[in-house]
Structures are given as C-alpha cells and as structure tokens.
User: Fold these one by one.
Assistant:
Number 1:
Amino acid sequence: MAIEKVSSEDFERINSAVDKLKMYFSKKANEIGRPLTYNIRTYGCQLNESDSEKLAGYLDQMGLVDTDAQPADVNIFNTCSIRENANDRLYGNLGVYKSEKLKNKDMIIAVCGCMMKVDENIAKIRKSFPYVDLIFDPQQLHLMPILLLKSLNSKKQAVEINDVDYIADDNNMPITRKRKFRALVPIMYGCNNFCTYCIVPFTRGRERSRDFDEIIKQLNDLAKEGYKEIMLLGQNVNSYGKDLGANKSFADLLRAAAQIKGFSRIRFMTSHPKDLSDEIIDIMATYDSIETHLHLPVQSGSNYVLARMNRHYTREQYLHIVKLFREKVPEGAISTDIIVGFPGETEQDFEDTLSIVEEVKYDSAFTFQYSIRPGTKAATYEDQVPQDVVTERFGRLLELQNRLVYESNQRMVGKTYEVLIEGESSTAPDILTGRTKCNHLVNFIIPESVCKFTDANEFEGKLAMIKITEAKPYSVEGVLESFINE
Ligand code: 5AD
Ligand code: SF4
C-alpha cells in the first residue's frame, strides 16, 4: 500500500471544486429562498470526530449551514467498523432516507468512514442503497469536494476507495471545530499493530506520522486563536515518528507542545502499553499543562489472552507501568479499554481480568463484548465464547467497574480541583460541566456570591476551582469557589 502526501496541486483541485460548489449551492439557495443545510452523523472514535470537523470545514466553505435537523440538504454518515452493531445502525438509517430522497431528489447522501474500507459494505450500499450519492474511505477524506462535484455533474454515485494512504497537512484544510476551546489534533494516522481482534489496521492503513514542524506550527496557531485544550490523537501515539526518519519521537512532540504558552490542558490518546516509555511518564510529571490522565488499554488481564490478542505485553509488564505512573504522578488517573469474551477466554482468564481491574482501580473503563470482525485473525479462531457466557461475564465486569468508579468519585468529596469548563450540563439548566486535570467529569453550580450566571457559553474554556460536594455513580457534583486568572 502506497503512502503519499497530499500535494499542493491536489489542494488546488480541491479548492477549485469548493468554489464551484459554493456557486452551485448559492444558486440553489436563491431558488428555494433559504440557505442549504448539512448534517454529519459521526460514529466511533475521536479520529472520526476530527475527520468530521474537516468535512464540516469544507461544507461551511461551500456556504452550507450546519443543522441538527435530519434530513438536511447534505447528509454525511461518518461510520465506524470497530464492532458489528455499527453496520446495522447505518443500514437502518440509510433505509429511512430512501423515502426522503424520493421527496427531495436534490438531497445529497454521503457515506464515509472506516466501514467504507470493507468491500462487502461498499457492495451492499451500491446494490441496496443506489440513491447514496457518494462513498469514500477515511484515507480519501480530503477529496470529498471533488467527489461531490463529480456526483452532481454526472448524477451518478461517486465512489472513491483507494489503496493510497494519504497524509493531508491539516494546516491546508478548513476545520470547523465542534468546541470553541478544544482542538483535536491528529498527529499520526493508521496502525501497524494488528491486534488479532481489530479491524483498524485494515481500515485506517499503515502508520504514518505527520511532519513534526507542521504539527508544531498548527499548535502555535491554535494557541494564538485562543484554544485552551488540545487533544493529540493517534491509534498509538507512542509510536509517533518511527516512520519519519527524523529522529523525532512522541516524547519530543509532547515536550514541545507543553512549552507552547496558552494551553491549559494537553491531552493525548491512545497509548499502547508496549510502547509507552518512562520518558512520557516523566514528561507528564514535569509539565503542568499536560493532563495527569493516562488512557492505557489493557484489553485483558490474562497472559494467555494477551498473547493471543497479539498485544506484546504481559500482565506483569502492564502492572509495572501502572506502578511507575502511580509513583511519578501520584494524583494521576488511569482509564482503559477491556474486551470480554475474546475467543478461548476461560473463566480463569476472565477472573484475571477482574483481578487486574481491582488491582489498578481504574478511574474509568470502556468495556466491550468481543465482536467478530471478518478479515481479522481472531475471526478464524474456532473457540468463540458463547454469547450467554459473554453477557454474564460482561455484567460482572460492569458491576465491579461501577463500584470502583463510585469509590473513586467518593474520594474526591471535600477536596477542591482545577476544572476546565466545557459548558452547560446536558442534564440540567444552570448547571455547568467540566473536567479535572485527571479527566474526571464535574457538574457544578456558580454561587451568586462569585458571579451572576447568565449564559453558559460565556464560561466555556475558562479554568475554575471547584469544591466537590457529592459523588454520583459516574460524575461528581460541586460548587465553584473561584475562577483562575490566566
Ligand atoms: N470487539 C470488541 N471490542 C473491540 N475493540 C476493538 N476491536 C474490537 C472487537 N473486535 C475495542 C478495543 C479497543 C477499543 C477502541 O475498541 O478495546 O481498544
Ligand atoms: Fe486496533 Fe490494536 Fe491498532 Fe489499537 S493498537 S487500533 S486495538 S490494532
């Protein structure tokens, strides 16, 4: 598979397509007497979220208006293929759009994301959903304007699935960020690890790191624009730079990011335990702006299962990293991903998972039931675990994890934490929500004695000291004591 940089000529072609589409949509808007709208549904991980922000950037440039209302004039489904159930959801949604498309022939439907790297999914859309206008895979995301133009001109389905893994320079792309204080910054694309259960190396291609100086330029620009939180993203950030031959590592990048003035929070994910270096932990302990939270997927607590998953670490090695992190970052938090019911997992293997969860005391955990992904090595394993056993084990794991999270939340009561305010809570008006440096979710009120609460947006991206008053199962509640002047 070839890896190519998107060239300046490519960007010229893309920008020219954007200009033509802008004229097309403006003419349409005049005809129907209102601006045209777009809606992007994003499934899956933060990298998909980041891709959607780029698609939104292009659509904004074309003069379209973002809307939550569905269907919009342009509808994009940015899909995820990490587990089976995502497929069913997409097909259900596309079915619903059939009658809408009959009512409004000018409506545009696009499907992109990781599901579009799987041949059967593309074949199914071409056969069963011929009214889908464009299909492209994650590596061809930047080509969306060219494809859209092609489909409008030809009135045919435009498909762009390619064997080239592109690296697009984000500095040349429009990006409409979802949150005004948070910037998602992919530092690398793809994955080389081939964990035996995982489809990502097939959908996102080989590991390719963005140029070091380009990332630093982007970060400096983001700081100047006033972003307070940056999230450095990659399937395995710890292997950043290995393909560059420029002697730059993730440690160099993290250190350089921490030295840029203006960011209150630097976050990063995901760290693979086999590549996480002591140096990264030292950097986390040194710089105040780096969050004291490590997302360290364990997947299983059993050495037998870890080996069959091709994870390249043992339970003992994993626990060694945890010990090191706890020593150097005593206030830090650890979160994880866990798969229950991997082929061949015995009751004893599962109990090893329960015991590692109990030992690490994760502050949060994303728990998944194993899902067969055709094309992966584990899909060929014959000792698949029966669904009733998986369901029963999953319930036990959830119960344990919920107890640990609640205990962790209870330990916070009575203490005061620095919180980056994210905005209004989704559960109640006049309640704000934010995260501590350890990524703990905090809901809080602002007492009138501190300041008059008017508009939640006003507080987004500000830092404040919050005293925790109550623990809830998945969050904590508190009261704002003071704002931090930066
Ligand atoms: N089944 C269940 N969970 C999976 N994950 C990845 N592939 C699968 C699968 N086939 C989980 C892993 C990974 C997270 C992003 O998704 O725990 O860390
Ligand atoms: Fe999938 Fe493993 Fe790569 Fe993570 S490290 S994306 S689990 S193959």
Number 2:
Amino acid sequence: MADSVTIIDNRTGESIEIPIVNGGVDATEWSKLLPGIWFYDPSFSTTAAAASAITELDGEAGILRYRGYPIEQLAEQSTYLEVAYLLIHGELPTPEQYEVWKHDITYHTFIHENVRKRFMEGFHHDAHPMGILVSTLAALSTFYPDAKDIFDEQSRYKQVIRLIAKMPTLAAGAHRHSVGMPFVYPDNSLDFTSNFLSMMWKVAEPRYEADPVLARALDILFILHADHEQNCGTTAMRVAGSAHADPYSCAAAAATALYGPRHGGANEAVIRMLTRIGSMDNVLPFIEDVKAGKGRLQGFGHRVYKNYDPRAKIIKETADKVFEVTGKNPLLDIALKLEEVALSDEYFTSRRLYPNVDFYSGLIYQAMGFPIEMFTVLFAIPRMSGWLAHWIELLDRNERIARPRQLYDGEPVRDYVPMDQRKASA
Ligand code: CMC
C-alpha cells in the first residue's frame, strides 16, 4: 500500500498523488492541482504550520517530550535551567556547558534602571502584571538595538540569554509595583527559581531563603510550562519572527497571546471560577450551568489532549507536596469534586474534556501566596525558553514569512455613495 494520497479534481479529471511524509502531506503539492483554491482551516485545527524538532506531542496517547526526553523524566530529574538549555540547543548540557549557561543566565538578570524606574513605575498601581510584562518586553527591544542582527550568532545568543534571564526580574518587578513594595534586585548567588522567589517576597532580611520544597515545586512547574509546540502564543512568536522582527518584539507578541483566558489566562480563570462556586453545594448547579452553555469549566479541555494532559498528572502530584508545606488550599475540595463530577458526566466524557495543565497549577500558585494576577506571568517566565527555541528554529530553517490566504465572503463590488445620499443600514 502506497504511503500517499491521491486527489482528483472532478471538474477536469486531473489527479495528483502526494506522498505522506512524517505524517503530513505537502500543501504546495496540493495547490499545484488546485491553483487559487485555498484550504479553509481557521484556527489551524488540521494544519501543520511548521516542521519542528523541539517538542513532540501526541494528544491521543498523552505524550509530551522535549527534544525526545519524556516530560515525566525531565520533571523528576532535571531543573528548569537545564531544560531551557535543552530546548535552545537541542541536547542536554555537559557539566561544563551547564556551568557556562548558568553563569551567563545568572549574570544577565539585571534590567536597565530606566526599564524599572520609567516604564514599570509609570504604570498605574492596579495595572495587570501581564500588561506590564507584555509592554516591558516590547520596550526592551529599544534598549538592545543589536537585537536586530538576528542572523548574527553572537547577538542572537546574547538576546536569548537576556530574555530568559530577565523574565523573573520583570515578573517580580511587576508584582512589587502592584503592591507598592520596593523593587528587589536579583541575587546572583541564588539559583534561577530561588532568585525569582527572593525578588518576589524579600522584605528586610539580608538574604531570602526560599523553602526548598516550594522552590522545587515551582521549578517543576517551570519545566512543565517551558514548551508546548505550536500553541497560540508560540504561533504568535513564529508569525512575528517570520517577518524578521527582533526577539523582544516577537516575545511581546507571544506573551500577548498567552494573556488570553483561553490560553495562559486559564489558570487565573480557574481560581476565579472556584471562588465563585464557593462551596461544595454549588458544584452540581455549576456543572449544570456549564452543560446548559452558560460558561465553560475552566481548566478543562484541550485542543490536542483528548485523553489526559500528562502535565496535569504531574502537577496534581506536585500539589500534594506543596500543600504539606503551605496547608491545603481551601478551594482544593471544590476542584476535586468538580473533577469527579465532570469525569463521570456524559457531557464532558463524550467531548473528551479532561483537566488540563491549568486546573491545578492555580491552586499551587495560590497556596504559595502568588496573587491571581501573577498566574499567567508564572506561565510566561519559563515559556520564554520555548518561544526562543522556536524563533531560532524558524530562522535556522529560513522559513518564509507567514502569510495565510483568506476566503473573502464580504460584499461584492459596489460604487461609492456620497455621504449626503447614504441611508443608515439596519
Ligand atoms: N467546558 C465546557 N465545555 C467545553 C469546554 C469546557 N472547558 N471546552 C470545550 N467544551 C465543549 C465545547 O462547548 C464544544 O461543545 P459542542 O461540540 O457541543 O459545541 C466542545 O467541547 C469542543 O470545544 P471546542 O471549543 O471546539 O474545543 P477547542 O479545541 O476549540 O478548545 C480549549 C480548546 C482549551 C480552548 C477549550 O477546551 C476551553 O475553552 N477550555 C477552557 C479554558 C482552558 O482551560 N484553557 C487552557 C488550555 S491548556 C493551557 C494552554 O495550553 O494554554
């Protein structure tokens, strides 16, 4: 049996055989037979917009691998910084390579004083930290004009280091601003995640000592969120990157997409939903409302995972360890009940809706003391390494500018009507 498909244009009788390579069929081959006829696939549900060697995801089997390494092994044995190296370079680092990487990241954590004083402090006191993050990421491009040299290897490496290193500083800065606390400078003697926690929580103590269980739990969450192939934010990164914009501007585009409640904003939406439900008595009526189309069960469902989200499984285990230190999040019982009810309800099972990465991550963040508005920021910190890995890949593969087609379904041609002769349309 040939590993190919044959399509016939019934208008002309012409046919074309297209090989199936790596699970895909080449759209340029199809369009040779169908010039001027476009594939209609808004939201790219059935379109592979890129070939990529970074993350392998099999939604049916619940598989997630970075550069071939199973997410379960990375979450158990690795650190976020090592995973960031893996995503960017394609291989796990040797001890020497890791030392250099760690040193380079650690020594680029500071941000220009103008970014802090003029940009971050300029925001209103109740500005959403994701809004601050998106804007300051874009602003950073003006501080590093060399970032435009996207085909210069050295410049590219420098921007990658800067972006990964500065994310925790920008994130913590956005939080401190919103609560009126003084900015905490990075402590280069701490590891990546402990340094972030220090910038978040340090008050008057000379050195902030993060609880090792909580620091490790957050590092695991960073590993789980580091990449997820062609999701909405990464696609935004690749689309902007394909126009050869600098990486700071591209990252701002990606962070903007992540901000949305259907994407990275869902962990925030989960806690708001659980708080609104408020008590166990309200779980069943809430589920009935969801089934009646009055809103969604936040943290449930995924475009590609239709059996289970492997990240959700690891997060649930991590949550238990965190709650041993912080005490149980009072919303946990409502979440567990929601999950139990949904997983035995035909509405959810027939649509293959299961808890996703965001269902339990918000409960952990909240138990650790992070305000709800910071949840998507916590997603963005590690996702930077995934965005950059995709940005490098698309440049290395010399991809063409992203420029989809459309099917026009608006008005046919009509003549301009002078303003005084127009009637209001219904
Ligand atoms: N609650 C209730 N019904 C749902 C939900 C949900 N969370 N998700 C999907 N459905 C229903 C939907 O109404 C539709 O039903 P019907 O066929 O009767 O019209 C069916 O399931 C298919 O939904 P869809 O909108 O076509 O699915 P999608 O693949 O376009 O959307 C999703 C995926 C994640 C946006 C969606 O499941 C959702 O909105 N979930 C809640 C938000 C959420 O948790 N997002 C985090 C995603 S994981 C983090 C990340 O990777 O960013």
